[in-house]
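Q: Given only this backbone (252 positions), what sequence would you predict?
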C-alpha cells in the first residue's frame, strides 16, 4: 500500500507532498517534494490507495444559503444568523466543532480565516481528481480524506503546536519533534530525508498527513457517526487517529 500526504497551500509554492510505502511492518518515504502543483497531486493520487489532504474539503452547510440570501437582498434568511452564535455556524463546520471537543484544538475556519484560499484550490483539485479518477466522498469513505496534522500529532502524544515558522525557536521545536517521531515510530524509514524534514514544517506536515492517510485506510480514525454523517458528506470530515502510531503497522 502507498499513502499520499498533501500539505496544501493556496499556490504551488509551499505545497508539500509525501508518499509512504507500507510493507512488512515498515513504512518507507519514497517521495518527498515541495512546491507541488495540481497536476502532481492528481498524478500522485492515482498511484496511492489513500490520500490525506491537510485542507478543508468543504464549507459549512449554512454558509452558501447565507451568502445567496444576502446577494438576493432577502433579509430573513440572513437574520437567521444574527449574533455570535449564528456567525459561528457560518464559520465552523460540524467536524470542526467535533474535532475541538475531541482534541481541544480549534481548526481554522474555512470561511472566515486564512484557509479560504487553500480551500478554493482544494475544491478545484477535487474536481480534477473526479475528472481523472472518479468523485471522492468528502467524508473520507473513498480514497481522499481530510486530515489535520495538529490533531494527529496530539493524539500520538507528540508536540502539536509551536513548530511552524522560520524563527530559531520554531526550528528547534521542529527538530525535536522529528526526533520524537522517529523514536515513537522506529519502523518509519525516512530514506535520508531527515535534514529536509527538519528544515521545512510543510514537508513535515505532508509526512504526518501521509501517516494519517494510513490510519484512515486501516480504520484507525474517528469517522462520522449517524449524527454527523449527513453534514460530513457535504461539509467534509476531519479524520483524527484513534490509537498510537504502532496501530498503523499492526494492521499489516
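A: Predicted residues:
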Amino acid at each position: 500500500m502507498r499513502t499520499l500526504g498533501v500539505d496544501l497551500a493556496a499556490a504551488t509554492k509551499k505545497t508539500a507532498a509525501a508518499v509512504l510505502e507500507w510493507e512488512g511492518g515498515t513504512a518507507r518515504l519514497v517521495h518527498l517534494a515541495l512546491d507541488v502543483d495540481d497536476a502532481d497531486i492528481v498524478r500522485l493520487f492515482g498511484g496511492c490507495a489513500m490520500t490525506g489532504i491537510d485542507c478543508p474539503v468543504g464549507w459549512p452547510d449554512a454558509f452558501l444559503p447565507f451568502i445567496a440570501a444576502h446577494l438576493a437582498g432577502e433579509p430573513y434568511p440572513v437574520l437567521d444568523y444574527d449574533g455570535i452564535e449564528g456567525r459561528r455556524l457560518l464559520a465552523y463546520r460540524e467536524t470542526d466543532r467535533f474535532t475541538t471537543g475531541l482534541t481541544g484544538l480549534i481548526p481554522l475556519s474555512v470561511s472566515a480565516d486564512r484557509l479560504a484560499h487553500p480551500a478554493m484550490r482544494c475544491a478545484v483539485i477535487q474536481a480534477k481528481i473526479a475528472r481523472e479518477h472518479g468523485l471522492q466522498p468528502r467524508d473520507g469513505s473513498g480514497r481522499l480524506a481530510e486530515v489535520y496534522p495538529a490533531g494527529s500529532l496530539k493524539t500520538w502524544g507528540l508536540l502539536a503546536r509551536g513548530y511552524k515558522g522560520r524563527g530559531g525557536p520554531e526550528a528547534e521545536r521542529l527538530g525535536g519533534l522529528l526526533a520524537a517521531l522517529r523514536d515513537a515510530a522506529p519502523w518509519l524509514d525516512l530514506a535520508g530525508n531527515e535534514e529536509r524534514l527538519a528544515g521545512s514544517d510543510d514537508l513535515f506536515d505532508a509526512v504526518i498527513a501521509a501517516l494519517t492517510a494510513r490510519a484512515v485506510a486501516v480504520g484507525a480514525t474517528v469517522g462520522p457517526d449517524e449524527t454527523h454523517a449527513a453534514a460530513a458528506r457535504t461539509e467534509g470530515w476531519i479524520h483524527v487517529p484513534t490509537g498510537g502510531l504502532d496501530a498503523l503497522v499492526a494492521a499489516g
